[in-house]
Amino acid sequence: MKKRLIWDLPTRLFHWLLVLSILAQYVTAELLDDAVQWHFYIGYFTLGLIIFRLLWGIFGPRYAKFSQFVKGPGAVFAYVKTFFDRDSLPSVGHNPLGGWFVVVMIALVLVQAVSGLFMTDDIFLDGPLRSMAKDDVLSIMNTLHHLSFDTLVYVIMLHIGASVFYGFYKRQKLVPPMISGKKPLPEDEAQYYGEAQGITHSQLGKAIIIALVAAACVYVVVEVLPPSAPAAQYYY
Ligand code: HEM
Ligand code: HEM
């Protein structure tokens, strides 16, 4: 076996920062009193993470690209048939089924972050886009903010369950590669996978530019788009 770099550093950072952010969002909304301002800030950060990942899925290295892991129904079905096969060849990037899990998780967090921009704590704080929407839209956003989180919790439990299943049942350890970036593959992997696998580096320069673009998008949504409140709102 030879270790190959599969998960670039930005994808790994994205993953573990996303995990911390979702935990922090739960804690600031459900467990702590008076933490809604933090919930907003971390929500903006989470939105930035998702915008980054969407761009990274287009411009990033091989295994981060959506085109590499989002497969059609034929490939997903063929993979599902081998699901309980303990000796199936490990997927190098996301497997065809896991790829769709990734898409669903990213989409749910995006819905969560966007709907949050229209929320209110009913006391002091309004999300930055709240004043731009009518009541019926606000009510949909409120429903979405609750519903997508509940759905996300189930999907995350399945996701963590799948990592445990792969580790114990299929003897494929997926978590260490999400930390170190490296996966053990057969020496002559071209023979098994049809071509050489792995990436040579994480393309950090490109990642920094994309992170700045993502931050700029969040700035526009939070600071530029909302109409400034009339002065009267502050004084009376
Ligand atoms: C809030 C909780 C979590 C969320 C929202 C989440 C979300 C994601 C996403 C979006 C990806 C795709 C990464 C990418 O390509 O950008 C991913 C991959 C992965 N996650 Fe998580 N994750 C969570 C928790 C965890 C935990 C606790 C573990 C460890 C047990 C874990 C293990 C993994 C692994 C191993 C992969 C790579 C799967 C593969 O090899 O195809 N995740 N996760
Ligand atoms: C993607 C990140 C986010 C996650 C995971 C998240 C999660 C949650 C959760 C679990 C709740 C509690 C819902 C309930 O009581 O059933 C909540 C409430 C809330 N969220 Fe978020 N949220 C996110 C982003 C945002 C953003 C960006 C904003 C605003 C800018 C926001 C504003 C609010 C508000 C105002 C509440 C109600 C708090 C209260 O009533 O005390 N959220 N969020």
UniProtKB/TrEMBL annotation:
Classification via SUPFAM superfamilies: Transmembrane di-heme cytochromes (SSF81342)
GO process terms (BP): respiratory electron transport chain
Transmembrane segments: 39-59, 97-119, 151-169, 207-226
Domain Cytochrome b561 bacterial/Ni-hydrogenase: 7-181
Location of this chain's protein in the cell: Cell membrane
Membrane topology label: Multi-pass membrane protein
Molecular-function GO term, any one: electron transfer activity
A cellular-component GO term for this protein: plasma membrane
Keywords carried by this UniProt record: Cell membrane, Membrane, Transmembrane, Transmembrane helix
PANTHER family assigned: BLL0597 PROTEIN, NI/FE-HYDROGENASE 1 B-TYPE CYTOCHROME SUBUNIT
Protein name: Cytochrome B
Species whose genome carries this gene: Alteromonas genovensis
Lineage of origin: Bacteria, Pseudomonadati, Pseudomonadota, Gammaproteobacteria, Alteromonadales
